[in-house]
Amino acid sequence: MTNINSSSILIVNNIDETLSGLIPSLPQHSYRIIRNEEKDDFLTAQAQQVIKESYISSNETKYILLCGNSFRVEAQNSLLKVLEEPPRNIVFVIITTSKSNILPTILSRMPHKYLKSKIERVDIDFDFFRMDLKSLYQFLKDNQKIGKKEAKVIIESVMLKINSQKIKLTQKELDVFSNGIKLLELNSRPINILTTLLLTIIHRKYR
Q1: Hey, is 82 helix, strand or coil?
Q2: Which of 5, 13, 76, 94 has its CA 20 to 30 A from that of 41?
Q3: What is the widest separation between alpha-carbon atoms in the chain?
């Protein structure tokens, strides 16, 4: 992880992984992480926490890490002044997953670093129209020991495969995929998530 010496915006693949790499490079007790613990949106409530924390004086450099997969416009607008004229010894680091999440007015005030790496995709070796419980069982058996990162790659590849076969999922089925990603972030067992998702697909075939 690149050392952070001044306020900046980091565009990353995964916020938690970025924090794990960044925090060890910061002086102990010199940082504050501000994020919405209930969902991925950075709201006005978090913006107010940032402003309050930034005006707590510090004799040493203090890093305030603003984390969110999305940032509400009103939250960003409320931060404009403090980002433009940060208090003494304050370094702001915005960590998000897309440059488009950030308003141009903030992008013009802070340099951004694009740290996203290309996400590997795997070729899922099954055909929806020929898939049955036997092939599903074999696929799950082959992938029973995968980790969270690999499971995310497989889920994305499954979605691409479904789209390539022009299969339209219902909103309920799409929610199953969305919830699967969230459960992976909460450290649910990857094989259990994959089992639920693929059973949802095969159930659709026979309904």
Answers
A1: helix
A2: 5
A3: 66
Long-range CB contact pairs, 110-115, < 8 A, 24+: 110/7, 110/8, 110/9, 110/83, 111/6, 111/8, 111/9, 112/8, 112/9, 112/10, 112/11, 113/2, 113/8, 113/9, 113/10, 113/11, 114/11, 115/2, 115/10, 115/11, 115/12, 115/13, 115/18
Helices 171-185 and 148-164 pack at an angle, to 10 degrees, of: 160
Number of H helices, E strands in the chain: 8, 7
- 56 vs 169: CA distance, rounded Å: 50
Measured distance CA(66)–CA(63) in Å, rounded = 10
Q: pTM of the predicted model, to two decimals?
A: 0.60
Which residue in 144, 125, 142, 129 sits closest to 190, CA to CA? 144
Residue 142 tokens, joined? 């082959």
Q: In terms of C-beta density within 10 A (0-12 exposed, 13-18 middle, 19 or more buried), how is residue 49 classed?
A: middle
Sign of the Cα pseudo-torsion (200, 203, 205, 207, in order): negative
Residue corresponding to tokens 């926490």: 49
Residue 41: CB atoms within 10 A of its CB come to 14
pLDDT in tens, 31-62: 999 999 888 889 999 999 999 999 998 899 99
Please give the Cα distance from 90 to 190 (Å, whole number).
39
Rounded Cα–Cα distance for residues 97 and 157 (Å): 19
